[in-house]
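tool_call: predict_structure(chain=1)
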Amino acid sequence: MAESQTQSKEGNKELKSGPSAQIRMALFGLLLAVGIVWGGMKLFRSFSFVETDNAQIEGDVYPVIPRVPGKVADVRAKDNQVVAKGDTLIVLDPSDYQVRRDIAEAALMTAKSQAAAAEATELKLGADLHRSSNLQRQDVISKAELDAATAGATASSAQHAAAGNQVKLREAELKNAELQLSWTAITAPAAGRVSKKAVEPGQYVTPGQQLIAIVGSGDLWVVANFKETQLENMRPGQPVTISVDAWPGKEFKGHVESISAGTGARFTLLPPDNASGNFVKVTQRVPVKIVFDKRPAEPLAAGMNVIVEVKVK
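tool_result:
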């Protein structure tokens, strides 16, 4: 009786353990198959694609700088404002430059008056010389008197020419004064969006000082820094898939436009010099410019992180 009960329990255990073992084996087999397929796909893609997340969106950035010194009278630009090329962003106090313009205008008028007087004198002395020449031929006046008239006419011609040059000089000075006055209105060098505004009314600015940066509204592109070991099969024109961190799940299409002629380290402030000190081999990164096939509708911004995948085969 006891033996039959024991056999019955063992039979029940086999019935219970049999299906569960089969399920575990099936699950293991399924996971193994998935792993093999996934690994195979990864291996295949490794031969056909190269990928890097060391990439950012780039765009044209235009500095807004004054060309003349002065006190800021008005700042019309606001942070992140969209502007068109030629829009007035900053106005400097024009008072000093208006005075310079007025002085230049007065100097030009004076020079024109002097030139007119010199021209009249030249005409008079020229006529006197003509009469003196006739009189000398008739022996009415001496040769010395004719020489004096000739010298006077020659001097008046020189004075007239000098007065004309003065007029040209004063005209150039007036143009320069008007140009400097126009520079007191600082305009946008290109269409785009105001960024990095560092100017306020009352501030004194000097030429070359960056006051605002304009991020251009034109084309954006991607600069991807690939390892030098990834460039063997990379060529301009190859298709690229671009994933932007700010837009997860969305892919943009582009292509390789160009590959830099130097590594990123070569253009640093202190490039490495392997001829001095201890040499340590470091895999270098080479910038690759990638352009979008179609301008994205999404508001992408320069500096955003992206992941790029280039189809090299």
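agent: The first helix runs from residue 2 to 48. Proceeding to next step.
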